[in-house]
Design goal:
GO molecular function: RNA binding
CATH class of the largest domain: Mainly Beta
Family: Belongs to the SmpB family.
Subcellular location: Cytoplasm
Protein name: SsrA-binding protein
Helix content: 25-40%
Strand content: 25-35%
Order of helices and strands: EHEHEEEHEEH
Structural class: alpha+beta
InterPro entries: SmpB (IPR023620), SsrA-bd_prot (IPR000037), SsrA-bd_prot_CS (IPR020081)
Length: 159
């Protein structure tokens, strides 16, 4: 059986980029049981309320919902169990220092298969205030209008 190559996104947390200012991202491995991997291969997962914590020098992913595998038996997994993230010791120590500064959170951005292994992209993020979110939306709308106007100008269609 040939080994998978490349990257296949399972689920992404689009709301995280809206609610948080992303400062730094990390790619982590994930400790899973067999039925979780099978359920993920079907493309079923939710990062809606998920977050990561650092406890006793280890990073844990909490509140990720991976539904039970439909073909599973009594050995099926618990859908919202706490899962361990795999990072290098240097990265964990850096995360411990940054999260203790205060105001920073660890938020999962996406979960994907990379060369047949499940990976999670987590971000060191700072929560945005309501006015920051409005500014981001206004800037995006203004950029879109500018691109439209530039496109029209290049085609010779002026208003």
């Amino acid at each position: 059986m040939p080994k998978e190559r490349g990257q296949k996104v399972i689920v992404s947390n689009r709301k995280a980029r809206h609610d948080y200012a992303i400062l730094d991202t990390y790619e982590c491995g994930l400790v899973l049981v067999g039925t979780e991997v099978k359920s993920l291969r079907e493309g079923k997962a939710s990062l809606a309320d998920a977050f990561a914590t650092v406890d006793d020098g280890e990073v844990w992913l909490r509140n990720v919902h991976i539904p039970e595998y439909t073909q599973g038996t009594w050995t099926n997994h618990t859908p919202r169990r706490t899962r361990k993230l795999l990072l290098h010791r240097r990265e964990i120590e850096k995360l411990i220092g940054k999260t203790k500064e205060g105001g920073l959170s660890l938020v999962p951005l996406s979960m994907y298969f990379k060369d047949g292994k499940v990976k999670v992209e987590i971000a060191l993020a700072k929560g945005k205030k309501a006015y920051d979110k409005r500014q981001t939306l206004a800037k995006r709308d203004a950029d879109r209008d500018i691109r439209k106007a530039m496109g029209r100008a290049l085609k010779g269609k002026f208003d």
